[in-house]
Amino acid sequence: MRVSEQISVLVVDDEPVIRAGLSAILDSQADITVAGTADDGENGVEACARLRPDVLLMDIRMPRRNGLWALAELERRGLIGPGRSRVLMLTTFDLDEYVDDALAAGASGFLLKSSSYEELTGAVRATAAGHSTLSPAVTHRIIQGHLRGRRRPSDQELARLRDLTEREADVLRLVRDGLSNAEIAHRLVVSLHTVKTHVSRVLTKTGCQSRAQAAVLARSVWP
């Protein structure tokens, strides 16, 4: 998250009631502000380019241009990733067929629309801070379900993993398991700053745009 007093969020959903409800919940938090809303993926991309929010809270299933299309376009235009906006995907389904593709495209995590207020606001804060949103049980279940049918890692992906140092590989395994930076620091008995540096290097070396994407890659190699 960029240095700011508040977390700015762009809410992208085709249903007006859902957009209004999510915006009301998020705006009620002292540390979160809704910078804007959009009603489909194309308008969401344009709003992201204009507003540069910390987090895009975006539905994966929308008419005309869905969340998967938007992710690809956001990536193509260099709008998402470390130091830029991060994407938290919303889904009505606990096993949506697009989840694996969206994570591979750079989404930072998933949240069910049936999630509690606390889960919603917590996931937005975690995403803005660059932490994995894999730790909630529901997200873990979604990802695990899709990984059972995920393709084997490519030779290029394996080569990138081999380029990691032993400590970077240790950090990636803990990211795979859903640990936060603070939990990794405690487990490895190192400083939080050191963990952040290792995570940044892991993302750069593997070509991943988010911790969630790195975790999916790691789980395909180290189940």
TrEMBL record:
SMART domains (alphabetical): HTH_LUXR, REC
Q: Pfam families from the entry?
A: GerE, Response_reg
Q: Name one GO biological process term.
A: phosphorelay signal transduction system
Q: Which UniProt key words apply to this protein?
A: DNA-binding, Phosphoprotein, Transcription, Transcription regulation
Q: In this protein, which residues make up the domain named HTH luxR-type?
A: 157-222
Please list the residues that carry the modification 4-aspartylphosphate: 59
* Domain of life, per lineage: Bacteria
| GO terms, molecular function | DNA binding
Domain Response regulatory, by residue range, is 8-128
Would you tell me the protein name for this molecule?
Answer: LuxR family transcriptional regulator
- Native species: Streptomyces bungoensis
